[in-house]
Amino acid sequence: MMILELLEDGFFAAIAAVxxxxxxxxxxxxxxxxxxLAAIGHSIRYFLMHFDSFSLSISQASFFASLSIGCxxxxxxxxxAVPAEVFAFPSLLPMxxxxxxxxxxxxxxxxxxxxxxxxxxxYINLFYSNGTTTIFILAALVxxxxxxxxxxxxxxxxxxxxxxxxx
Amino acid sequence: xxxxxxxxxxxxxxxxxxTCMMAVGAQTSRIERNALRIxxxxxxxxxxxxxxxxxxxxxxxxxxxxxxxxxSRIKPMPLNFEIxxxxxxxxxxxxxxxxxLNRASxxxxxxxxxxxxxxxxxxxxxxFANASFCRLFHGDFISMAIVFVATFIGFFFKQQMQKxxxxxxxxxILSAMFASAFGSLGYLxxxxxxxxxxxxxxxxxxIPGVPLINGVMDIIDGHIVTGCCRLFNxxxxxxxxxxxxxxxxxxxxxxxx
Lengths: 167, 257
What we know:
By secondary structure, chain A is mostly helical. Chain A has helices at 2-22, 28-50, 58-80, 84-92, 98-113, 117-151, 153-156.
């Protein structure tokens, strides 16, 4: 049951990654890698959030998901001679907290037109909870994906060197 | 005098190179490394400073006798990771193969002239992507269909408005409005069991994910000013999305939900 859910999650994450990646016009051969990494990353996140013995929060799970994307992307960067972020960033896009960011701004907009203090407190609460979730997920995603790049710094910045990259 | 001319032409090339990389959405530290690498290949030293719209650079010869400084504008360009990858590769080739300057700038022009992916393919893929995104938030298949059509309409108009060079904020507000107008049909016509997901996801194709990631990346890399600029810009665009969506919520009377 869990396996099926994970596969479904990975499948839709891969489609989402390809579609959001294509907006930034990536090299064709890196598109498949983004899809693969997005599927792996997103299903790791789903697993960590929904599997009973972990049940991490969304930002903690995002951190481990993006850490694994980061490690894999450094590996693929060398093989394809393309900077790691070219496929690491698109594969993070399905995990970008767009919904939370939007709810944050919506809460502050509704707060402005609230009449009673109880309503105001409710929307301030929504603003803070969504806002902190947005910031923490975003930071977790980027720090997670950056750690492997920092660890293998010289390596990560020289992947485009040499003749294995097509001109 | 010869020395000065050479400095000037290399400075021109490096500034074109870096402003392009900045515009297509590369990390600041990568741009800096690539630019310094090119300078080193021509036995020069470079120092540079980046802002959102301009960059400042001073190029020195190896004996610190002559220098050339320039301020260049970063022209807005759509995100393009292929150019990012190819320019990074070109900087290594200049370093390793000692490519002369005029040939290097020809190669650079050739990279910039490469065609983008067909806009129709982009339109279809983005629509499928946003529909799958709706599924990731546990939307049902009817909501996915609504999101697909909403994204298709919104993104189509976004492409058209960008072709007409409309103001970026207006483009984001209007395409959020088009998409959410269709996305709200789930509520208005009682289609599907997850109309909230259909409405919420229908505008998410507009979220500027790459600038958000790049901004945080720049900040932890120590390029705090550029990072904050990118994040602020992205936050403005997210606000535009919220404005467009709220306008539709007020028009349709869904704001009370």
